[in-house]
Structure formats: structure tokens, C-alpha cells
Specification:
- The chain is elongated and about 60 Å long.
- It contains one helix and eleven strands.
- Helices cover about 5% and strands about 60% of the residues.
- It is mainly beta and about 180 residues long.
- An eight-stranded antiparallel barrel has the order 1-4-5-7-8-9-10-11.
Length: about 180
């Protein structure tokens, strides 16, 4: 069977995250510049090869000072580590529409295996005749696992920035000719 390449449609995708601030509210952010590809056998997504990268310089939390701090050596160290990457080692169907993705997430030069549930929307054709597929990924990581350790203690106890990062990723891919 022929392999099929799928490229990300950045107009209809979003790479989002949330982190607790002062232990009681969430600060949301996203990456504005990223790339992802999927390679499948025909239109079968089981065992698809999936790769993703995001430009650290494109991190956006709607606050320029905070974004600059995130790009600094305190967090992502964008100068030395300009991209975060993910390469799937497994993409398997759990049941209709539900998949599980496993792979290596590399941030700041540190690679760790992660596992996330994936909602697979199925394959559809848009009004212009393009074959599309959608994936929704939600999961959690601990930022300290990748050396993103900066924090500040609060006078009232606790810390300024939570360790848990919640991911909210919406991906739309277009089948390549």
C-alpha cells in the first residue's frame, strides 16, 4: 500500500497550554510557529509516523515581559534550544475515534517519553476538495521533568508558577498529493 503524507494546516490548528499562576488561576499560552507531519499507510492512521516541532521564540501568553522570561535561560532558553520537538513511537487505536500517542518530547535538550489520549475526528473533504483529518490532544506534563525549574516562593506559602502544564492541542492536517 502506498504511503500518504499529511501536512499541518496552521490556519486551523492551535498548540495551547495552561499553567497555574499563584496556585489559583491559569495562565494560557500558545506557540504561534510550528510544523507537523504525519505519514500513514493509505488512510490508515494506526501506527502513523508523527513528528512535530514548535519554535520557542513564538511562545505567546499575551504578555511581552512574561514571553521574554519564558524564552530566557530561566525557562526554555530559546537561544540555545530554539525548538521543542515531538516524535511519536506509537499511535494506536483504542476504540472508534480514540487513539493513544506515545513518543519522545524534547524540550531544552532533554528528551522524555510521554503518552497522551488523542481524539481522532476522522477523514473529511473540505468545500475545496482537500482531504483533511483532525486530532485533538489533551494531556499534562511536569515542566520540571525538562529542566524548566524557575520559580518564586509566595509570602503566603506556595509558589508563583505551577509545575503541571496542561496541554490543549488542536491539529488539522491536509492530505498531500
Amino acid at each position: 500500500m502506498a504511503t500518504t503524507k499529511w501536512s499541518i494546516d496552521p490556519t486551523h490548528s492551535e498548540i495551547g497550554f495552561k499553567v497555574k499562576h499563584m496556585m489559583f488561576t491559569n495562565v494560557s499560552g500558545k506557540f504561534g510557529t510550528y510544523d507537523a507531519t504525519i505519514t500513514t499507510e493509505g488512510n490508515d492512521f494506526e501506527n502513523a509516523a508523527i513528528e512535530f516541532s514548535a519554535d520557542i521564540a513564538s511562545v505567546d501568553t499575551a504578555n511581552a515581559d512574561r514571553d521574554g522570561h519564558l524564552r530566557s535561560a530561566d525557562f526554555f532558553d530559546a537561544e540555545s534550544n530554539p525548538k521543542l520537538t515531538f516524535k511519536a513511537s506509537s499511535f494506536k487505536k483504542i476504540d472508534d475515534g480514540d487513539y493513544e500517542i506515545v513518543g519522545d518530547l524534547t524540550i531544552k535538550g532533554v528528551s522524555k517519553e510521554v503518552k497522551f489520549p488523542v481524539e481522532f475526528s476522522g477523514i473529511m473533504t473540505d468545500p475545496w476538495g482537500n482531504t483533511k483529518v483532525g486530532l485533538s490532544i489533551e494531556g499534562k506534563i511536569n515542566r520540571k521533568d525538562w529542566g524548566l525549574n524557575w520559580n518564586s516562593a509566595l509570602e503566603t506559602g506556595g509558589v508563583l508558577v505551577g509545575e503541571e502544564v496542561r496541554l490543549n492541542i488542536e491539529l488539522q492536517f491536509a492530505k498531500q498529493a
